[in-house]
Amino acid sequence: MKIIIGGAGAVGTHLAQLLSKEKQDIVLMDEKIERLQHLSSAFDLMVMNASPTSIKAQKNAGVADADMFIGVTPDESTNMTCCMIASNLGCKKTVARIDNYEYLDPQISEFFRHLGVNSLVYPELLAAREIANTLQTSWIRQWWEVGSGDLVMIGVKLRKNAQILNTPLKDLGGAELPYHIVAIKRDDETIIPNGNDMILDQDVVYFMANKKDLSKIQEVCGKEAYPEIKNVLIVGGDRIAIRTVDLLDPSIHVTIIEQDEKRCERINELLAKKGNKVLVVKGDGRNFASLEDINVSKYQAFVALTGSAEVNILACLAAHKEGIVKTVAKVEKNEYMKMAEDLDIGTIINKKNIAAGSIYQKLLAADVTNMKSLELANADVAELTVGPNAKITRKPVKDLGLPKGVTIGGMVRDGVGMLVQGNTVLQEGDHVVIFCLSNMINKLEKFF
Q1: In this predicted structure, what is the pLDDT of residue 403?
Q2: Reduced to 3 states, what is the DSSP secondary structure of residue 401?
Q3: Distance from the Cα of residue 194 to its chain's centroid
Q4: To bridge 180 with a disulfide, which of 144, 208, 216, 351 should be the other Cys (CB 3.0-4.6 Å)?
Q5: Lowest model confidence (mean pLDDT) among 12-26, 47-61, 79-93, 314-328
């Protein structure tokens, strides 16, 4: 597959590196030579120092024979323009990164499709969805819904009081368990477990289960004392904060702390138009003692969304000291993500990597209806639809010979979410949840 990426910023570079590992034919274009230096020697891709909106440059890059053009520069208009050019020059499919929420309206999206922009990716909305999902419960770090939402994948950090520590998984209950343990993140290692593996203190464990059984997982994880989230404190009034408020249940009360007075006024205007009841406070969210208008002890969740990864990490540490149990930090610098995880600050959001994962989903040949890249676990979870006469329907799951590092967590059949056992035989039309190590999804296409 030939893929041309316009823009060597964080999203473009991350996506190019991801795809180069799969031996795809990648061309990465950018006007700034310093963004391209060392990339061609370190990864299996071609770089081009040129504007992605240049017709001549796109022709030289071979856009007429390209399977996809991806516009991910920091400028929305540039992305839309270069996708339109690529489409008219013969590129089969285009994707543009945007920052205008109204473009996602179905009628407007259809208008852009006629102009040659096939798909739109809005990183701030993707990040807001991640945050809104993880704020549904205080004891869950990551949350991913399948199908109608009855079947979920959750990530939970386990402590010494968990009931399921230091016991081989095969001795926990087998097929009668109301959940599947699909992966274990231990330090820098991701384990797709078998029956002999055990969960240890400080592991992040990924469970697949029906929503109705989450209370049972909460019990065996020793998380019964975690409170229900009713009040959320957000530091930083950016677009992610606005979209998060839109997505949260209206019963959850939100306070936004923003240092810039004009931005505070703008947030109030935007949210008032939508009918959201949100308290906006001008102040420095890192210093709770200086904020006289809020009672920190009433909040069950804290979200740090400033433009500084360092500030967000420190703010979450401060929130923990104040007794807030659920913390979420936006960390855009990849080199800080491991440090943030080691500091145990809670859920980590990187909108650029989330956007790259969303675009990666669009590149897969199999019918992937939903995909989530678990950056800190070096793993992916995807919902794939079983096609007619698919190889995966010919034998029970345990006899399929799936690649090492892959497990099937659950499926949705006729609208009903259910766990998958070794003797389960999949059928055409099933929506199957696959959990696998990074860069392995494409190896499963032949099964579906």
Answers
A1: 83
A2: coil
A3: 26
A4: 208
A5: 12-26
| Dist CA 269 CA 40 (whole Å) | 47
Tell me whether residue 196 is exposed, middle or buried, using C-beta atoms within 10 angstroms of its C-beta: 0 to 12, 13 to 18, 19 or more. Answer: exposed
What is the spatial distance between Cα 116 and Cα 139, in angstroms, rounded to a whole number?
44
Residue 388: exposure state from Cβ atoms within 10 A (0-12, 13-18, ≥19): exposed
* pLDDT 10s digits, 359-395: 877 776 555 666 666 655 567 777 888 888 888 999 8
**Average pLDDT over the chain, rounded to an integer:** 88
The confidence score (pLDDT) of residue 164 equals 94
Cβ neighbours for 437, distance < 8 A, ≥ 6 positions apart: 190, 192, 378, 379, 380, 405, 406
- Taking the C-alpha atoms of residue 82 and residue 193, their distance in angstroms, rounded to an integer, is 44
Q: Round to whole Å and give the CA distance between 28 and 66.
A: 13
What is the side-by-side order of every strand in the sheet holding 406-413? 368-374, 379-385, 431-437, 406-413, 416-419
Q: For residues 435 and 206, give the distance between their C-alpha atoms in angstroms, rounded to a whole number.
A: 10
68-71 and 94-97: which strand pairing?
parallel
**Euclidean distance between CA atoms 49 and 64, whole angstroms:** 19
- Among 442, 433, 439, smallest CA distance to 206 is for 433
Check if the beta carbon of residue 197 is closer than 8 Å to that of residue 191.
Answer: yes
Which neighbouring-strand residues pair with 4?
27, 69
In this prediction, residue 175 has a pLDDT band, given cuts at 50, 70 and 90, of confident
Q: Cβ(433)–Cβ(409) under 8 Å?
A: yes
